[in-house]
Amino acid sequence: MGRAVAVRRWTPTALECYKRGCNCEGCFYKDFFSGSSQKCQMKASVLELVRVIGTPNVELQQFILED
Questions:
Q1: 3-state class of 14 per DSSP?
Q2: More exposed terminus of the chain, fewer Cβ within 10 Å: N or C?
Q3: Which residues have CB under 8 Å from 29's CB, separation 6+?
């Protein structure tokens, strides 16, 4: 996942990513980083937040996957 990430608290952006299940489709940052050599590190941050702090007290979105 790249570099180590220092995390301290759940930010609004991290919460949004967590609620989306770290699914980049439709996320603001997907467009923000398109065409850039850099890539979003939010998934790594969310995973580290869960590991260090635990899951936030929010409801997850339910995704319906169609074949």
A1: helix
A2: C
A3: 40, 42
CB neighbours of residue 36 within 10 Å: 8
Q: Which ranges in 1-67 belong to alpha helices (H)?
A: 12-19, 28-33, 42-52
Asked if residues 50 and 19 have their Cβ atoms less than 8 Å apart, the reply is no
- What burial class does residue 19 get, using C-beta atoms within 10 Å of its C-beta: 0-12 exposed, 13-18 middle, 19+ buried? middle
Structure tokens, 58: 């929010």
Tens of pLDDT, residues 30-58: 888 888 999 899 999 999 999 999 999 88
DSSP state of 59: P
Share of the chain above pLDDT 90, in %: 49
pLDDT at 60: 65
